[in-house]
Write a structure and sequence with these properties.
Helix content of chain A: 55-70%
Largest sheet of chain A: none
Shape of chain A: globular
Oligomer: homotetramer
Number of strands of chain A: 0
Order of helices and strands of chain A: HHHHHHHHHHHHHHHH
Distance between the termini of chain A: 45 Å
Structural class of chain A: mainly alpha
Number of helices of chain A: 16
Chain lengths: 361, 361, 361, 361
């Protein structure tokens, strides 16, 4: 292992790194102190976006084989965990920008026109790699997102629209969930039974509840009708995907199985992964929401440089640009542990480790 | 100063405090481990709500005199700062609840029915004291918020609807902003002139910009039309309050003055206060937004115990239950420092300290 | 499932909870505004301490069986994770107390004398349950920690000194680590070989490095001597426990095995657990460190009410009251993956799952 | 205001920024996934260090005039506040590095040898600009800090040793505190009287306290002896600076005055500034402390690449490299508000604003 005498400064290219902050206000001989922060914070965002893409690529790669080895599942989980920690930082980082007042921003805002964070190619790549589809994107000023991307980056961004996204790979992985069906056990059928029996028992309880007046009783029962309908859609053959759900029924089936039996050793990591997807999604939502509030605070209801309101765009995107809401939504379909179908011994055994950790003979 | 030998345990009533956690699941002989967390976290929330109310009361009291002394403004600011730090904690605290999975919550959820965080009297009191009006509240299941309050607390909650709220007191305080008009200076008139001249100059720039094609030019000019309209409303005699704005024109006038000249010594604390109101508002928004995501993650699209969807209520309230959006929105109306009307010497002098801190002769 | 109509207010005992804040300054007819915060924040700390003890008890219970089932390991991990999230909150919560100035604290400080956070029984119980030994505790003013505990709580606190602590249980669990020795494989011997061969190769590289001058070479080689010595102690029969290390050699052996082969499916959760112990430990260290800084800021070098300096005690305890530093310290003994002894197929197979998650053929 | 059509990508030099991450492991044809994170996080740190230096320079510049105008004090405070927010981020950012395990770090650690964060020139510049003196620095492996700085940066770093530091400027500013002495009032003398009378009264109370046994009484009185001694040093002519304190007596006098009367309008911003200096200091302490724990977790007690233990260096620096501990320590010398010397009307009047905000006639 030969190596030259590397220094921190050279290793990290510090000199080049610190030469990339060019204030537009200074170029116009009207230097505004706060522009530096504006540059530094955005460059820091882009560095972290690069890291997120780097981790996403490795995760997508690990998921792209025909099957995902358990060993790799651990790696995937630790890398998504890293993305999650970065996302938390991205959100916290906004507090630094909040030390800039609208008046101070206004001083140099015009010099940047029409540059806008909306043009970040890396952020669009992240969205595409996660699985945000073109048709689900909020339009900005009636234009597609890629109309705002610099020509030099447009092709790279567009290419990521067609690559297999994390969403698609998770879907396939869920569809491959084992144990769902054997000669003696069909999870789907058993679960349907368990669900309806639980609902019937609840309705029965309500009808026999002498503390309820007629109104409350009717309202409660109506409530259960809607629950039943929900489950009917879940179990019906052509229920998925539909206009609200992107996952196939098979994938949802797998995910519910993992959720319900996640205490079994072999399902603990898969369950962790599903939780992470929800968390990642919600952190992007938090990010957009905080971003939107910040934009509103900085420029109010002013129309943005592109002729449209950035605040309103961000606000809409906050709730619409989620990727894994199908998985978040699974809580709708779970029933308490004590009402779950009992797994046959054979499957139960497969879900455990053949070796009980710590037991020594 | 005579005192008995007080101990930590007695001072804080630790024994009583630690005896207030009664798990419903345990009462039903079906103890579920995670219910303890559910109790502890909500009790902790209520302790902090008490502290927020305590600080709010003191702030409202300081603002209720005919005028607010500078000395007290400093106190008000430090107490709002405390509320803000508490709000940040309330938001962070949700991460602890996120360690509970939907499956674990489901285990004891039915035992709590129909108790719900929606019934927190203290939270409603906070909203009322801040200035959330009954008519601006999102209804929950077509009922008023106070239909969900325990009978024992209803009167206290309702009373706070009629008390002078922080919003009302801030409004009056802003209306009293001095310096706006003297024999030789009328801020409102000067500002109107400055605004229109800035807009005219921008439009002129656009029309002379040879890099713009016809389309871009028309769109930019249309954009400025809308800006102009916005300002027209601001300056028109009967512009405020309107369906979007609760503040009076006079109060907005005062707030804009503070915003524009906030570098002047005497306006620094008032400006800090306005920033805090915005931050407090946005933190409640963050809180509701994170709360709504958590509710969705925990129970999915399930209909809540009250027969309605808590998730949807929270989601709506997130954007609608703001109090000080009029102040946040002021960024819409500011223009760059170098275009501000110059203050007459007399006013400029009043805004400074007679004593320049530092050099002593 | 019959139940009365429970409300939020009754469920959480809100009325009692909110009646437990009795300001001493008020009792002395000298009400000081900031005392309320002092009470609320400490009560909130005690609520969270109760939750930590509750989780610790359940974890200790799960670890107390002769062996820990994999299924339970997942539960243990999720509960330690909860403790970790609570610890983060405890640290963040200090920011709220920092909104109180030393002047404001001084206003009511004398009324509380000699009550002190040092008297928190629950905090001592946590330390004991984690495994802090009496002999490792920093004395405060030459007295034992329990001299400060209220008589009513002393016995409970002392009892927890003798219970099996988390540290002891983890030690036993590590000593039971399987796979370390079979007829054909002795991990300890193989690892010793690998370590020394790696060291020899490094020394060789240094001696052949023509870019190094004589001085640098000697210093590098001396450095490796100290590394070698370190490992000699590790492998020597009577190396552990010693005055620096509480763990037995057998437990350390098990922990290193987990660390080195933690990518193997069956070792992923054990590895996660070890990481959590380190994190938990470091968060307590952070907590004490921040607490000590806060105490210094609040009362300076003033001698505390007990006649000794709280600041200095906290400062010492920060670095000495760690529990799992043996585990943190394990990084000292790891070598790169590509130099690890190769596991025999039989063991490798046992460490995997018999079922490869995903595609099934 | 003419400008070319600037884009986000060009404005921020994104292409260059994203080309600066060169993995050493990749150069050795042995690419290790986690090295990317190591590069990105350090580059992000350096970006933020640049921003901190930029703000520090502007603050030092504002303080370098003969006096600091009130208007500028507001600017200084908002910029220190920005530094504080950045420091919080730097600390949080470590959580991302904690997602790297010691095993993964070990994989590429040797490739970086002997590059080390210890060589960051910008961090040393920050320390120098804050006011850390060469003689107060912990030596690393018996060498001065600048022996580790890259030749290309050494001169710049050394130069900052001799520039006026923030500490020196704050000292001068405090020494200029007005109001301390007038023909009719000498704060120092009045304060000395007040202090001793408060102490005498306390001792008297103790001696008359019938609940105290002889031992407790003696110990309490001894305690007050030490307090008295402390104050004697404060008031003695040649008390400062001494081996523990860098501030002059005159500066400490000014700072105590600000602390004691900080409710007066004109002292609110100065008091805020003092609080910020303490917070900035303590955040650096937190940063070093967390950094030291991280180093220990990553490499254990291993000797670092420079032949010395980074962990131990960081640990020592944590408590020794503070700058403003003289100011933190001021809490030692304050007495309750109700025992403060009353300010003469003339001074009281000067400390207020001539205009009472909001009062309108």
């Amino acid at each position: 292992m030969k190596k030259k005498n590397i220094t921190y400064t050279k290793y990290l290219n510090i000199d080049k790194l610190l030469s990339l902050q060019k204030m537009e206000s200074e170029k116009h001989n009207d230097k505004k102190h706060d522009e530096m922060l504006f540059i530094i914070i955005h460059q820091s965002y882009e560095l972290w976006f690069k890291q997120i893409i780097y981790e996403l690529d490795s995760i997508i790669n690990l998921f792209s084989s025909n099957y995902v080895q358990e060993q790799n599942l651990g790696i995937v989980i630790s890398r998504i965990n890293r993305i999650i920690e970065i996302q938390k930082l991205l959100i916290n980082q906004m507090s630094i920008l909040e030390t800039m007042t609208p008046m101070d921003f206004l001083e140099f805002r015009n010099y940047l026109n029409p540059a806008s964070g909306f043009q970040s190619a890396q952020f669009r790549i992240i969205e595409n790699k996660l699985g945000l589809r073109l048709e689900d994107r909020i339009k900005f000023d009636n234009k597609n997102y890629d109309d705002y991307i610099d020509a030099s980056e447009k092709k790279i961004v567009n290419n990521t629209e067609n690559d297999l996204s994390l969403f698609e790979l998770i879907k396939k992985w869920l569809e491959r969930t084992p144990f769902l069906q054997s000669s003696e056990f069909n999870f789907w059928i058993e679960y349907e039974k368990a669900v309806y029996s639980a609902i019937e028992r609840d309705i029965n309880d309500i009808q026999n509840n002498k503390n309820l007046n007629e109104d409350a009783m009717q309202s409660s029962i109506k409530h259960y009708d809607s629950i039943k309908n929900n489950f009917k859609k879940l179990f019906s053959k052509n229920g998925f995907p539909n206009d609200k759900n992107r996952l196939s029924q098979k994938a949802i089936l797998g995910a519910i199985f993992i959720l319900l039996y996640r205490d079994e050793p072999i399902l603990q990591l898969p369950h962790k992964l599903l939780s992470q997807l929800i968390e990642m999604d919600q952190l992007w939502t938090n990010w957009r929401s905080k971003h939107s509030l910040l934009a509103f605070r900085m420029i109010g209801a002013k129309i943005g440089t592109g002729g449209s309101s950035g605040y309103k765009y961000l606000n809409k995107a906050t709730s619409k640009h989620t990727i894994f809401s199908d998985i978040t939504n699974l809580s709708t379909y779970i029933i308490p542990r004590n009402e779950l179908p009992k797994l046959p011994d054979e499957i139960k055994h497969q879900l455990g480790f053949y070796f009980t950790y710590g037991e020594k003979k």
